[in-house]
Design a protein that fits this description.
The complex is a heterodimer of chains A (119) and B (108).
Chain A (H helix, E strand, L loop, with lengths): L2 E6 L1 E3 L5 E8 L6 E8 L5 E7 L6 E3 L7 E6 L4 E6 L8 E9 L5 E4 L3 E5 L2
Parallel strand pairs in A: 2-11
Antiparallel strand pairs in A: 1-3, 3-8, 4-5, 4-9, 5-6, 7-8, 9-10, 9-11
Chain B lengths: L3 E4 L2 E4 L5 E7 L8 E6 L6 E5 L3 E2 L7 E6 L2 E6 L9 E6 L11 E5 L1
Parallel strand pairs in B: 2-10
Antiparallel strand pairs in B: 1-3, 3-8, 4-5, 4-9, 5-6, 7-8, 9-10
Classes of the chains: A mainly beta (119), B mainly beta (108).
Chain lengths: 119, 108
């Protein structure tokens, strides 16, 4: 079965750190870019970051640039979002999602993981 | 940064009616790299349309996407009960790959 399974998340204080994981199975991991998308409580979707299939290209939304780091481990078919200097406004459900090269959209999504930043 | 504006914010329609959702970009979207997603409460988004007009795998043919440049449309030809949800457009040509603010489709 093609799937992305997320783990990590939880609660942190402002200024703290968390790491999210996204494990891929059922497809050739190295053929797809992966995106992170988040959704604050009661709000719409916000694109956070993407990493290319090879890991050579990574891009971030301005809201997280310099604080979040996206990496992928091809040996483990896994991806990681290291979130540092967390802010209250980072509170959201975070989703990882795969996208094929070219004009394809994000067709497989993880189940989502909740991050709560509060003092 | 390109801004996507979806309209209307909320749409109230009856079963069997036609729904037309709009997504307007502040600048042209390169190669029509524009997707539509459906999201129901407590669920991850689901890809409906990519490349502005291509239905994703398994999506019923009552869903269709059209448009180019700065103006895009998602049409649902005959509303079924499971279609009432929130719909988002997203551009993914260059970063930032922004989403529109969403259109909530409610049942009358």
């Amino acid at each position: 079965e093609v799937q992305l399974v997320q783990s990590g998340g939880g609660m942190a204080q402002p200024g703290g750190s968390l790491r999210l994981s996204c494990a891929a199975s059922g497809f050739t991991f190295s053929n797809y870019e992966i995106n992170w998308v988040r959704q604050a409580p009661g709000k719409g979707l916000e694109w956070v970051s993407f990493i290319s299939s090879t890991g050579s290209t990574i891009s971030y939304a301005d809201s997280v640039k310099g604080r979040f780091t996206f990496s992928r481990d091809h040996a483990k078919n896994s991806l990681y979002l290291q979130m540092n200097s967390l802010r209250v406004e980072d509170t959201a459900v975070y989703y990882c999602a795969r996208r094929d090269y070219g004009y394809y959209g994000m067709d497989v999504w993880g189940q989502g993981t909740t991050v709560t930043v509060s003092s | 940064e390109i801004v996507l504006t979806q309209s209307p914010g909320t749409m109230t329609l009856s079963l069997g009616e036609r729904a037309t959702l709009s997504c307007r970009a502040s600048q042209s979207v390169y190669s029509n790299y524009l997707a539509w997603y459906q999201q129901k409460p407590g669920q991850a988004p689901r890809l409906l349309v990519f490349g502005a007009s291509n239905r994703a795998t398994g999506i019923p043919d009552r869903f269709s996407g059209s448009g180019s440049g700065t103006d895009f449309t998602l049409t649902i030809s005959r509303l079924e009960p499971e279609d009432f949800a929130v719909y988002y457009c997203q551009k993914y040509d260059i970063s930032p790959r922004t989403f529109g603010q969403g259109t909530k489709l409610e049942i009358k």
